[in-house]
């Protein structure tokens, strides 16, 4: 059973259980509010705070460090849910994709941190609004995602994902070279040329050598080679 939080008790609601309250309304603060009957705050989510649209309003702890961190987490969860419904995926592919997604999320958070500038012209790294200063919400989220990336990367390495991708890339390139050989031989025959002539062999060898040495060639899945 979810009991009303201390913050809600300070707001004047004593003894109400979560089940006694009406259903939360999307886009509202929804904190338990003062009154004889159970009810929720209907103010816009984050009203009077620096996270308008998410979390508690200023009257229900929205400006406190805990309220700001909770709002940042709520926002992150909401963004995750926008990615879509679950799809069928193998464990190996899931680990590979998770490493890439987490790295991308970390880069996005870093961009947001660098855009959140304080009065001194520097990124806001510390939240000094409360009695006990701590990492700013975005910084705390950044630290958590970095820890998750380490865990995901280690799991991927332990599962052999990196080696599997290397083997797949090697097999793909070997097959690509075979296809090029077959196409060139077929064209040479249609033109009445000997596919094994030194002229044809040298031309194909030079082309394949350039392809093999091209570090900017597209990699499997659109990622880095």
Key phrases:
225 residues; two-stranded antiparallel ribbon; disordered C terminus; single chain; 51% helix; disordered N terminus; 3 domains; elongated; 2% strand; 6 helices; mainly alpha; 2 strands
How would you portray this structure in words?
This protein is mainly α. It folds into 3 domains: 20-82, no CATH class; 91-159; 162-211. The protein has helices at residues 6-10, 65-81, 91-115, 137-158, 161-190, 198-213, and strands at 126-127, 134-135. The protein is elongated. It has 6 helices and 2 strands, in the order H-H-H-E-E-H-H-H. The longest helix has 30 residues, at 161-190. Strands 1-2 form a two-stranded antiparallel ribbon. 18% of the residues are buried.
Question: What's the helix and strand layout?
Answer:
Layout: H1 6-10, H2 65-81, H3 91-115, E1 126-127, E2 134-135, H4 137-158, H5 161-190, H6 198-213
Antiparallel strand pairs: 1-2
Q: Tell me the span between the first and last alpha carbons.
A: 52 Å
The major pleated sheet works out as:
2 strands, antiparallel
Mean pLDDT: 77
Strands, count? 2
Structural class: mainly alpha
Biased composition (Basic and acidic residues): 1-11
Region (Disordered): 1-65
């Amino acid at each position: 059973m979810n009991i009303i939080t201390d913050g809600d008790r300070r707001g004047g609601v004593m003894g109400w259980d979560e089940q006694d309250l009406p259903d939360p309304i999307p886009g509202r603060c929804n904190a338990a509010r003062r009154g004889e009957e159970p009810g929720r705050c209907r103010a816009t989510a984050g009203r009077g705070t620096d996270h308008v649209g998410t979390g508690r309003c200023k009257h229900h702890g929205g400006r406190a460090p805990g309220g700001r961190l909770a709002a940042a987490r709520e926002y992150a969860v909401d963004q995750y849910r926008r990615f879509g419904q679950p799809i069928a995926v193998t464990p190996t592919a899931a680990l590979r994709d998770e490493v890439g997604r987490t790295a991308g999320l970390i880069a996005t958070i870093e961009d947001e941190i660098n855009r959140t500038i304080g009065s001194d012209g520097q990124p806001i790294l510390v939240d000094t609004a409360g009695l006990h200063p701590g990492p700013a919400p975005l910084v705390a989220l950044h630290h958590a995602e970095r820890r998750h990336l380490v865990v995901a990367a280690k799991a991927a390495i332990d599962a052999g994902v990196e080696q599997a991708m290397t083997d797949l890339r090697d097999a793909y390139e070997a097959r690509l070279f075979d296809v090029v050989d077959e196409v060139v031989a077929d064209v040479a025959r249609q033109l009445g040329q000997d596919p094994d002539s030194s002229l044809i062999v040298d031309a194909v060898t030079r082309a394949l050598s350039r392809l093999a040495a091209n570090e900017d060639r597209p990699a499997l899945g659109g990622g880095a080679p």
